[in-house]
Amino acid sequence: MSIEPIAFWGLAVVLLASSLAVVLTRNLFHSVLYLALSLTATAGVFLSLDAEFLAAVQLLLYAGGVVTIAVFAIVVTERLVGDRITQTSRQILTGFILSGALLIGLLAIFRKSPLTVPRPAVTGDLTRAIGQSLLTSYVLPFELLGVLFLAALVGALYFARPDD
Amino acid sequence: MTLQAYLTLAAMLFCIGLFGVMTRRNTIGILLGIELMLNAVNINLVAFARFLGDVSGMVFTVFTICITVAEVALGLALVILIFRIRRTAVADHLDLLKG
Prior knowledge:
The complex is a heterodimer. By secondary structure, chain A is mainly alpha-helical. The longest helix of chain A is centred in the middle third of the chain and has 30 residues. Chain A has two domains: about 100 residues, Four Helix Bundle (Hemerythrin (Met), subunit A); about 45 residues. In chain B, about 80% of the residues lie in helices and about 0% in strands. Chain B contains three helices and no strands. Chain B is mostly helical. Chain B has a single domain, classed as Helix Hairpins, CATH 1.10.287.3510. Chains A and B meet through α1, α2, α3, α4 and α5 of A and α1, α2 and α3 of B.
């Protein structure tokens, strides 16, 4: 038995377990830490798909950036309210039924029309291909992304300014 | 692993995120659920790109990751702003527009 299925199933178990912990744990801070674990496991899934560049981006931006911002937001809101935030859930039954129904529907579709695409061998450097594609066919969205980041930066600064 | 396995994993992750979005009361908790759903979409995009031998899906993933980071930064800035003004992070209490 090769190492690949073992790695995949291990990653899948870690990913699903930590994601369940994100939506089920009561402590909001623990929730964010489980999200970091879940995002790191996703980077592992990207690695198993030979997308090393995306795994690095995932770790840097998601597990680094998003988790840091979320921790800051929790610290700031807890400081404002003065005590620890415990979060509760509502309508657990409805949420469970709806998301379970969606999952069953999706799995039924997968079972009905199985996608038996063989996995092609890696041709060339995928990172190089991504970079070339970004700066040729997708150069307009790439530039628009820069504008979006500028707008987000200005917007976040506007929100965060002290009251005058 | 087959494409089917990756799609199943992503579907499960998406449904867990959806469950979180529907059941959480705290706005930050809802945002974390949205993160999980977007993550599932990224896995789908990368899996299809890898199995179809087309790099476009991976380029799309770069875009979605970047846009998500901007979205989270703005979303959490909004949460802090609402918290400063209304002293609450519970989504049900934000009923200012309710007639």
